[in-house]
Structures are given as structure tokens and as C-alpha cells.
Design goal:
It is built from two helices and eight strands, in the order E-E-H-E-E-E-E-H-E-E. By secondary structure, it is an alpha+beta fold. Strand 7 and strand 8 form a beta hairpin. 9% of the residues are buried.
């Protein structure tokens, strides 16, 4: 992965709870840029896969899924782990039990060069644009939990 700016984002191109703000052109959260900089360069990405049957939305599926992804910024062995703080995070403001986090809604959490975030996230936002334009608000009901539900089969159904 190329990181020419040395600034790294760890986030998702969109957040499920902000889709409607995005659709209306309202501001959404900025990407979560890590506070620690890395030397500009090209880095190896390692992916761990898992395979086997699982259940998704009540459907039993055989599949191969990405279980974890690691950006290797050094070939030195790992000797310890520390919290990956974002530029807006302040460890002193955390309450007991809280931790900084990034979002991976819809399983599209990723690493990206902060300088190229807008360009790299554009295809995902284009997908959301198409998804939102196909959804007809009159066909959506609001459940008791406040979430919208569709009367018909979801467009992302595998059947």
C-alpha cells in the first residue's frame, strides 16, 4: 500500500448511522487519521482469512471472509502494542472502560493515505449514492427500535 503523505487513516468510507446525513449533503465525521506519522513509502499488507459455514441475517452461508488485516510498517518483530490514537483523541479524556476506536461499518474498514482519502473513498460513496436512490422512502417503515425497515426484500439479498 502506498502512503506518500506519511499520514494514515484507519476508518470506513462511510458510517451506517450517517448515511442519511451524507445523502442530504450534510457534514459527516471526518476520517479517523492516526496521530502517529509513518515514513512516506510503500508498505506490505497482510490479510488473515477464515473459511467455513456461518449465519448471516438468518441465512446459512459457506464462505471465505477476511478476519483481520495488518499494515506492516516495519520488518522488526512486534514487541508490544499500544493504543492507535487519532489526531482528535485525547487519552486523558477517556472515561474508565472507554477506548478510542474506528468504524468498520458494512465491513469496509480500511487503511488509506490521508491525503488521498477523498479519492479512495469515492467509489464506496458512489455505491451508497446508488443504494439510496434505489430506496423509496415510502416503502420504509420505522420499527419500535427507531430503525428503518423495508417492506420488500432488501436489494442486497443473495437469493
Amino acid at each position: 500500500m502506498r502512503v506518500p503523505s506519511g499520514r494514515l487513516v484507519v476508518d470506513a468510507p462511510w458510517h451506517d448511522d450517517q448515511v442519511w446525513e451524507y445523502q442530504r449533503g450534510l457534514p459527516t465525521w471526518p476520517p479517523r487519521e492516526l496521530a502517529v506519522r509513518i515514513p512516506p513509502g510503500v508498505y506490505r499488507v497482510e490479510i488473515a482469512w477464515t473459511a467455513g459455514p456461518y449465519e448471516f441475517m438468518g441465512e446459512h452461508v459457506d464462505g471465505v471472509e477476511c478476519a483481520a488485516t495488518r499494515l506492516c510498517i516495519s520488518d522488526d518483530p512486534v514487541v508490544g502494542w499500544e493504543m492507535g490514537l487519532g489526531v482528535e483523541d485525547d487519552i486523558a479524556r477517556l472515561q474508565p472502560g472507554e477506548e478510542p476506536r474506528f468504524f468498520s461499518d458494512a465491513n469496509v474498514g480500511c487503511f488509506a493515505d490521508a491525503g488521498a482519502w477523498t479519492t479512495l473513498s469515492a467509489p464506496f460513496r458512489t455505491f451508497i449514492d446508488g443504494f439510496l436512490h434505489r430506496a423509496t422512502p415510502s416503502s420504509w417503515l420505522t420499527g419500535a427500535n427507531g430503525y428503518a425497515t423495508s417492506r420488500s426484500k432488501p436489494i442486497w439479498s443473495r437469493s
